[in-house]
Amino acid sequence: MTFHTIKNKTLTLLQWLTVVLLVGFFSGSASALFLLALEKVTQIRTDNFWIIGLLPLGGLAIGLLYHYYGQAVVKGNNLILEEYDAPQQPIAFRMAPLVLITTLLTHLFGGSAGREGTAVQMGAAIADSMKRFFGTATIDRKSLLIMGISAGFASVFGTPFAGAIFAIEVVYFSKINFKNCVLSFAVAFTAYFTVELWPVTHTHYSIPEVPAMTISLFFWTILASILFGLAALLFSRSTHLWGNLFSKTIAYAPFRPFVGGCILAWVIFNFSVQPYIGLGVPVIVEAFSTANPWYAFLLKILFTGFTLGAGFKGGEVTPLFFVGATLGSALSLVVPMPIALLAGLGFVAVFSGATHTPIACTIMGLELFGWESALYIALACTVAYFCSGSVGIYKSQIVKGPKYKAYEKIKKSISSF
Predict the structure, then answer these.
(1) What is the dihedral of CA 166, 172, 175, 181, to 10 degrees?
(2) What is the pLDDT averaged over residues 349-377?
(3) Which of 223, 258, 304, 409 has a CA positioned 20 to 30 A from the CA of residue 38?
(4) Domain co-membership, 17 together with 97
(5) Tell me: the pLDDT tens digits for 192-242?
(6) What angle do CA 74, 80, 82 make, to 5 degrees?
(7) How far is CA 166 from CA 124, 220, 352, 361, 392, in A?
(8) Rounded mean pLDDT of 345-370?
(9) At 7, is the secondary structure helix, strand, or coil?
(10) CA distance 298 to 327
């Protein structure tokens, strides 16, 4: 190896190290700022119930912001996946402040949404901007986008291992090389430790009782996981259904969240549905100790699908946690398993089915709940993944492999009748 080769490799290594530190620090700081602001606006809404009456105006503001300033980034997470699969042009940095502001508006006025999408979009916008900053051939955009997804996910949930795997798995494993794996893990931990420097507290969950796996519990776990997969399918279909309905019936995009906000505000004011708006973290925590009504997960699917379909902003993952935890909690009334275990399995399994990321969700379950429940978690995430249909929450996600070939055969068989 010549001196020139060693010099070039060293410079490339230093460049990537710098990029990892910058993306991790800025993405982690952005997520921390977002989490602190989200906690504040949620408290304001809780203390001032009347503010929900402003939901239509908040929706109109969101619609106008994206109509005039965010047309290029309105696809959100789907744009990131599209740019990874077939790079066209750099993601505009304004994606980060736009999704931050509009997600906070959604939560302030009472929309039902999450936070993962916001953190991932901020991370991707920050990471992709590094290409313009460094401008060298060695810094490729695909690696940067994986780093952005990883940093955003790891920092907002406090799960660096799951964040790193999620970024790799969501863009489809076959297109990943060893370099991307190393970068994904490095930036995930950098972003995670950056958030730890801020006064941010992540929600802690626990499964205090994990029985030894028996044949009976094995089959009960499979049965529950099939239901988790079907819930994931319903969530994905609901979100797409409302989005298509609003697009077809209201031509002027800014009016969609305005009309949706009017309907949501009326429903919230006239029915006792406050637990199903916002993030819903208190309900998720409660689900680990108290059985929820059977319809709780259905109401969260309805409110989240309607909110996001109307054009409000935010993520889908925390609502998926809500759906899974409350469904698992309700199942404890008929399934002979500990309530916390069922809630925890639903928490990660519905997420697995809706995002087609069973490995990342299994790792997340281990990070959140511990290794004692590893066998149950892995089984639940795998079964839910195979039972959740061929289309998840991300329309632009690449879907291949045995599962999708099987679904295509089923579709052809049905259509032939």
Answers:
(1) 10
(2) 96
(3) 258
(4) yes
(5) 999 999 999 999 999 999 999 999 999 999 999 999 999 999 999 999 999
(6) 100
(7) 14, 27, 10, 8, 14
(8) 96
(9) helix
(10) 9
- DSSP 8-state symbol, 113: -
Closest listed residue to residue 228, CA positions, set 327, 305, 315: 327
Same domain as 335, residue 220 = yes
73 CB-near residues (< 8 Å, 6+ apart): 66, 79, 91, 92, 94, 95, 98, 99, 121, 125
- Cα 45 to Cα 283: distance, rounded to the nearest angstrom: 16
Q: How far, CA to CA in Å, does 186 sit from each of 173, 182, 204?
A: 18, 6, 24
Residue from 183, 229, 214 nearest 386 by CA = 229
Find the distance separating the first CA and the last CA of the chain, reported in whole Å.
Answer: 65
Average pLDDT over residues 322-341: 98
Amino acid identity of residue 250, one-letter, is I
Q: Which two tokens stand for residue 27?
A: 């993405």
Which tens digit of pLDDT belongs to each residue from 247-303? 999 999 999 999 999 999 999 999 999 999 999 999 999 999 999 999 999 999 999
Spatial separation of the C-alpha atoms in residues 378 and 355, rounded to whole Å: 15
Instruction: Say which CATH number the domain at 309 has.
Output: 1.10.3080.10
pTM to 2 decimal places: 0.94
In angstroms, how far is CA 291 from the centroid of its own chain?
25
